[in-house]
Amino acid sequence: MVLRTLAASPLRKGKTVRSSIFGNLDSSQPQPNGFVLENHKMLRVQLAPGEVLAKQGSMVAFQGQMDFDYEGSGGIGKLFKKAMTGEGASLMRVRGQGPLYLADNADDIHLFYLENEGLTVNGRNLLAFQPQLSWDIQRVQGAGIAAGGLFNTTVTGTGWVAVTTHGTPVLLDAARMPTFADGQSAVCWSTTLQVGVNRTMKAGALIGRGSGEAMQLAFRGQGFVLVQASEGAPVVPSS
Length: 239
Known about the structure:
Elements: E1 18-19, E2 35-39, E3 42-55, E4 59-62, E5 65-72, H1 76-85, E6 91-102, E7 108-121, E8 126-129, E9 134-139, E10 151-165, E11 170-173, E12 179-181, E13 186-190, E14 194-199, E15 215-220, E16 224-227
Antiparallel strand pairs: 1-7, 2-3, 3-6, 3-8, 4-6, 5-6, 7-10, 7-13, 8-10, 9-10, 11-16, 12-15, 13-16, 14-15
Protein name: AIM24 family protein
InterPro entries: AIM24, AIM24_sf, Trp_RNA-bd_attenuator-like_dom
Pfam families: AIM24
């Protein structure tokens, strides 16, 4: 798979997040702390022994001894946010020793290594991350609860994060010019970016056929946005 990278661009001052997407990480080789891509669609986590947080139901195989526990929302505050927004994949905590294989609907998998950094991820695209990382559900400024898909999960700290994309994504440098993306197509982005809502609905769209693209996420500042070639599976609103 060939992905156009922006490693030469100043996506942020100082070092750039480590990822094969930027050309500064070889995801085909064993990585520190046990994260490695078995192939583009399967992640191998080597627990020796240890634990990992992963999307519930993403285990496809394991060897050795493993215990799987439902992680829940991670606290009352996160539980309330999930109930109100529908954001955030249900997580499981896997403990044990041996190789654990994770995948999600044969989607492509991409690794990021954070070093005291943050990454905002669409909850449906979050496959796995190391337990020492902190995570929370945050609302995009300017978007109310009625605007579905505009709540996302932010992961911060030092450690590995694995995200999925439907097909080969495109990497956009928001520092070059104002950048906009469909809320369901935006997979993840730098927490250094200013994120808001861009509304493009015109009065004429209320009569007859509208474009169907009345609202997008707007990104500005130093950082990147990873966009997949799909809006993903339909999301059933939370009751």
